[in-house]
Amino acid sequence: MRILIALAAALMVTGSTAAQAAAPAALAAPNINVANVQAHLNQFQSIANANSGNRAHGRPGYLASINWVKSKLDAAGYTTRVQSFTSNGATGYNLIADYPGGDANNVVMLGGHLDSVSAGPGINDNGTGSASILEVALQVKATGFQPTKHLRFGWWGAEELGLVGSTYYVNSLSSTEKSKIKAYLNFDMTGSPNPGYFVYSSSGQPTGSAALTQRLQAGFTALGVQTELTNVGGRSDHAAFARAGIPTGGTFTGAEGIKTSAQASKWGGTAGQAFDRCYHRSCDTTANVSATALDRNADVIASTLWATAA
Ligand code: DPN
Ligand code: ZN
């Protein structure tokens, strides 16, 4: 009896407009439209086509990529900055974009590398991560998201030469600036054509990383997608952040590794074949992307950002 009364009272409260006005639900993360992400990938492909087939460090296709991403962010009201550095005798560039507002002492950062290898246009590696965080950044503005925390996005140069740009950025920060970054999420290869659904393991990563890993996993669970943890170690741009003690996380759909039959039963695709047969090759074009993997990862990036920065 008492339980029934309590239940009825709870139903009345949740059903009343007064209760809804008093405690508005947090703005839900948007479902990212994969067609928008694909349009950004087409842009990267066009840039490569117009610049000797690549977007590599020190080549004109790289700077054209930086300028194009910057123009989209500037138009959406971001405060952007191009940071240059020298590597292998050529000038490289990072693009940093801050979304106005939020607690400047509490920064959530998303990043990915924008450079390709010189062998090809680098559409899965890493047009996908670059295009996805760009679209998420644009949706922050489009949805009117007003996070409590401050949002920052980074597109790194010269990752393919040894994580050069992201390392340069982290080293350029004072210890105070580093300590303000409470989370760094990295997205490198999120549309592999024979995809796996990997979330960076937090084992051995700074305290606070496990919570990020769990949020990324929860994002895939909400889509009904099983995940595996992977130790990406020093293979992508979160490494410099982790060394600085910043909690890190990320997602990955696989590179030169071979999909096992257990993974093929779980995720579909082809066992005994690489996750990305065009990894670091000239065939890493817009044809080398799984739209399903791209879409799922973009949705998980958005839900994780919304939950982490709210
Ligand atoms: N860092 C990627 C590359 O640019 O070659 C490969 C990679 C990405 C490996 C993510 C592990 C995790
Ligand atoms: Zn690569």
TrEMBL record:
Q: Its domain of life?
A: Bacteria
Work out whether the entry's keyword set contains Cell membrane: no
Q: Which residues form the Peptidase M28 domain?
A: 94-303
Q: Which CDD domains match?
A: M28_SGAP_like
Signal peptide stretch: 1-21
GO terms (molecular function) for this protein are: aminopeptidase activity; metal ion binding; metalloexopeptidase activity
Family the UniProt entry places it in: Belongs to the peptidase M28 family. M28A subfamily.
Q: What's this protein's name?
A: Peptidase family M28
Organism source for this protein?
Lentzea albida
